[in-house]
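Two proteins follow. First one:
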Amino acid sequence: MSRDTTDLAGLRVLVTGAAGGLGRAMAEALHAEGAHLVLTTRDADSLPRAAAGLDRGPEVVTAAADVTNDVELVKAVELATARLGGIDVLVNNAGVPGPAGPAWENDPAEWWHAMEVNLGGALAACRAVLPGMIERGRGRVVTISSHAGHTRWPYVSAYSVSKAAVNKLTENMAIELLPHGITAFSYHPGIVDVGLGASATASAARDSDNPWDRRIESWLDTQREAGKYTPVAAAIANLLRLIRGEADALTGRYLTHEDDIAGLVAATDRV
């Protein structure tokens, strides 16, 4: 991208799934650094929550757009283009955990719904946003992934497989987008105490009738107690580096909150 890659001020960023959890934390961090925001949520009722407290400074555009609904996504992008002139960065954040338990015992509709949201939703958002980026000859796409997609995570197979597919989609799209000046990344923020990894979510799962939900949340509790959760600020720090463009030389990569972005870029430059 032709702009200053160290500055978020004025950058136009679309975040899906922005009503709560990690999406909301991203929106706050981006807004604080001067980025204009396009925040989408699954339904209109959650729009005020997405934009709460972001009424001063950079412009914030909100739109109800379920990531499984292509028409709603296109309308959200049209609104953002009319208000802001376009979108510079897409952050595919919307996601669901999917069913827990042995894959062959999962409800097939619930299992496939996780694929439709986590993988299909990311691709649908790309379909809505990329034509404008291609026309302008610049852009970035960051899709939130997980260690679950980088290795095996038994008993949450739908989530794991969907995130593995997201990683592979990113690798392929990065090559396809090279001629258009657009970069693409999948990003693992770590396990954070918001959204799917939040204490409140764990409490609800412990009350579930599904023993596999309780088993998974018990494991998350041990991770939290062992200090293996990632502070939200640390989870977002590398994400902001990707959004700024500091990792553009690494397009197509699966990157994490622990990676030394500058060091990886320097190593690439030496090759």
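Second one, unrelated to the first:
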Amino acid sequence: MYINGIKLSPLVVAEPSESYQSGTTLNRWVEVLVDCPGSTGLFTYRLPAQLEIKPGDILSVPFGAQQLGAIAIRLLAQPNVDLAPEKIREVEDIVSVGFFPSAYWELLNRVAAYYYTPLIQVIRVALPPGLLGRSQRRIRLVRGGGAGGRGQGAGGK
């Protein structure tokens, strides 16, 4: 049976010494709840290659002209077809890994469903005050590659 209109990702046939690979990277987008007054929906962001994000992680994301806290809800293999891929912004950083255990995450979803309340409101009540508030500018120190890592300015050793 054939189904019309389905787009399958192209597969590359492997040489005898190689493995099979898909032409696309899976789960390189994430849907998040953003902590912004008035926003109750999910927003899609692109995952940078260096970040490994799981649902329940607390993230820092660009939202308009500011950086806001967000919670990863689910990973996506492809963004929504209504979104232009070039318009999707990248996740800035991970603030807290695995903040929500799966049982707690399930409880929050049940509370939201039971009280007919947006999930972000339930999460705001369940979290310590200010945890998802506007994130401060974060800096990351990286060892310099030249001159033995010294003399690279104030961020040096």
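SUMMARY FIELD: The first helix runs from residue 102 to 114. Helices lie at 102-114, 119-126.
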